[in-house]
Amino acid sequence: QVQLGESGGGLVQAGGSLRLSCAASGRAISTLSVGWFRQAPGKEREFVAAIMRSSGYPNYSDSVKGRFTISRDNAENTAYLQMNNLKPEDTAVYYCAARTGSATVPDPEKYDYWGQGTQVTVSS
Question: Is the pLDDT of residue 102 over 90?
Fold first, then answer.
């Protein structure tokens, strides 16, 4: 059974940076496609970024492209989301998710495993 645990959230001013971590256990992260999603109050869960298993090829939503970078460290069995130039509209609970399929799909229904989420708050 795969378990995911996020960390790294917090409060930051607009223009600042945060790095979120997603530690995986139960399976090598290189065998999973890992995605980051976020959910703001009153809104649906939104795709942010994903990284393909094996190849590590990334995929980003248009709203974060150029500001966020997804990566992973196979030795640490951890995926990361580096968030730069944060904006107040980035405020949300951020979730790490994983799927055994090879594609980095933006549909949260396609992901098999989820972390508990970490709060990111960006003040203006």
Answer: no
What is the separation of C-alpha 63 from the centre of its chain, rounded to a whole number of angstroms? 14
For the chain, the average pLDDT equals 95
Structure tokens at 92: 């949300």
How confident is the model at residue 8, as a pLDDT? 97
Q: In the numeric block, which tokens belong to residue 35?
A: 């995605």
Q: What is the dihedral of CA 101, 19, 86, 42, to 10 degrees?
A: 60
